[in-house]
Every structure is written in C-alpha cells, then in structure tokens.
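User: Second chain of the day. Same drill as before.
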Amino acid sequence: MPALAPVTIAELARRSGIDIASIRLYEEMGLLPRPRRSRGRSGDAAYHREHFERLAFIKRALDLGFPPETIAELVGVNGGLRTCNDIYQIVQRHLAGLRQGTDQPTAVETTLKNLADACPRKGSSAECTILAALSRPIEC
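Assistant: Same format as last time:
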C-alpha cells in the first residue's frame, strides 16, 4: 500500500468506505486508535495508515460476523498479551455461536473453520495466522 499522508476523518471515511459515525463509534469503543493532531495552528485530527489498516481489519471481521465486542478482544483493546492460542479460542467461540441452530455451514463458517484449522495455536498474536488473514482481504 502506498504511503498515506495524514488525512481528515472525511477523507478516511471516503477511502475506507466506512461512514464517519461508525469511525467515531470505533474510536469510542477503543477499536480504532484516536487520531493524532496535525502540526501547526489548526491542530486538526490527522488519520494515518494505521487507522486505515485497522478500519480494513474491522470491516473484514464484521463481514465474518464478529460483533464489535469480539473484535475488541481480537485486537486486544483491554490490554494484556494475547497468544495465537487466545485468538484461536476466540474464533472457536465465535464459530460455536454461528453453528447454533443450523445444519449446513455457511460460507462465513467455512472460511472461519479453514482459518482455525490452519492456525498453529503457538506463539504470540503477532505471529497468528488468523490475525494475519484478517489483515488482508478474505474471500468467502
């Protein structure tokens, strides 16, 4: 991805395809880091590449049916170190919830099951294949 110069929230919304109200909600929930302030007299909020990447992660996770509270767990909003196995357990819990009351797996369930099956469940969250997959486009 090319460098992303600091942008306003309106530009971040336009580029990410996520409305401003949702961006503000994600900030309030702690899912999205607060913007930095631009230098100079205006001190306007300045959004950077990490904001765009986090929004893309949130969007992909939402597309896979994760509720915002579970996304917060995945990104470690409440602090604490997460291991790859912790992430795997979160996905397994989400899968169990999706399976309730259905006989045939959906495309989302199949995608999540494939991610979980490929997970080594070892190492830190930085090495987690599930988080890596959620950080890039996933085809359901």
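The longest helix spans residues 84-99.

User: Great, on to the next one.
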